[in-house]
Amino acid sequence: xxxxxxxxxxxxxxxxxxxxxxxxxxxxxxxxxxxxxxxxxxxxxxxxxxxxxxxxxxxxxxxxxxxxxxxxxxxxxxxxxxxxxxxxxxxxxxxxxxxxxxxxxxxxxxxxxxxxxxxxxxxxxxxxxxxxxxxxxxxxxxxxxxxxxxxxxxxxxxxxxxxxxxxxxxxxxxxxxxxxxxxxxxxxxxxxxxxxxxxxxxxxxxxxxxxxxxxxxxxxxxxxxxxxxxxxxxxxxxxxxxxxxxxxxxxxxxxxxxxxxxxxxxxxxxxxxxxxxxxxxxxxxxxxxxxxxxxxxxxxxxxxxxxxxxxxxxxxxxxxxxxxxxxxxxxxxxxxxxxxxxxxxxxxxxxxxxxxxxxxxxxxxxxxxxxxxxxxxxxxxxxxxxxxxxxxxxxxxxxxxxxxxxxxxxxxxxxxxxxxxxxxxxxxxxxxxxxxxxxxxxxxxxxxxxxxxxxxxxxxxxxxxxxxxxxxxxxxxxxxxxxxxxxxxxxxxxxxxxxxxxxxxxxxxxxxxxxxxxxxxxxxxxxxxxxxxxxxxxxxxx
Length: 542
Known about the structure:
Blueprint: H1 6-13, E1 18-23, H2 27-38, E2 43-46, E3 62-63, H3 75-91, E4 96-105, H4 113-127, E5 133-136, H5 137-143, E6 154-163, H6 165-178, E7 182-184, E8 187-194, E9 200-207, E10 216-226, H7 232-240, E11 251-262, E12 271-275, E13 282-288, E14 291-295, E15 299-300, H8 313-326, E16 339-348, E17 363-367, E18 370-374, H9 381-392, H10 424-434, H11 438-444, H12 460-469, H13 475-482, H14 485-488, H15 497-508, H16 512-529
Parallel strand pairs: 1-2, 1-10, 2-7, 4-12, 10-18
Antiparallel strand pairs: 3-6, 4-6, 5-6, 8-9, 9-10, 11-14, 11-15, 11-16, 12-13, 13-14, 17-18
């Protein structure tokens, strides 16, 4: 699947009529594609950039119920989210893993610890399991010695979950494709097709991979589903033929940014949840793939919408303030920051002054034959997909059978022939990340390729597999999304490029000129969007 010639094959068959065309290759589009295939629909997913290249590779990596939404009385959202979290923990072992949180309590917090305890009781009841406990300051420091702020009063321990968001998207898409769906990246929607009733009946798409002579083609479908996330309004404008009316739903684009620190600078083994000392917003500090992450901000994104937005100076200061407040003896500084990442998410704009108070519930509506799905959370993507298909029934001539509560993620394979040197924890992680591709990944690996690349929790075998079989078009697809070493290695993995080249260049079938072009583009992208801004001390070597 997705081996040599896969794009040419899809483009040669793409002009067939489809039941549904899904615009957007993030977690929302992936979930809809998966469920559509389950109910027998002939479904096509197109993504203008790479799969998961937007918000779905830039989330906070947390599969959580949204405890903070209880404060905004969003009980329904929290209920469904915690139930989906429990489901994903069972189905996605190795990809979605439990994460122990410590919720700190300080005198300046907007809510006292006992109120937070009541909230956690409700949180656990919604999940149908008890998972929190109060600790005084001494006990909390025993669990996390880095919490050295003398004002710490204590806090609660509770459980949520952590994932690799981009790998989750890719696994869902690949399982859908294995069951008969079609998905293609670097395929841009340039416009919509309309029937005689002026209703949307297809898309005009263009191959932007630079690997084909294909230009624009028109593709018809019974229904077009807009799952383009922060770009959804751009697709909706095509449906109206002009700007969106003030009477219609409008999306608010919010940027969430994160700082990544090496473990030597921020050595934590548990996640920390706290209220920001300046504005009392909930923020997190947590370990992920051998690094530590502080996030997230929640600000209006007023700049032009790009796939790779950049963190602002103000956001860096805001997040550093969290680290220096919680861990004063670590003396975290901007010079300790290894990398950054930012994503833009879309919520329904209700005009609230505080962006964090906008609802994260998803919304689905139909406009001139275009079904738009937006909002929501990574955790609830399965529910969004089911709701979208339920809404789609009235617009399709084919009958959709009842949408049952099947597994979103397929059962992991049991026939993997493991090398005896591969640790059981690594085996579980590989099964989670790759699902039914795991046997072929293992068989494809060369001697000693299950060793981790430096301190990150990614093996050379994963690089080889991704380059060979996972639809990589550009180097950032490989290093930022198929594996995450662009975030977890110092300097975006740039010092390792020559070693990476020896593993992947032949698999990608790139000549030396193409390899240099891709490296130059990757280095420029990493400096521009993932490192500290140059005026703050970016000294990345080329």
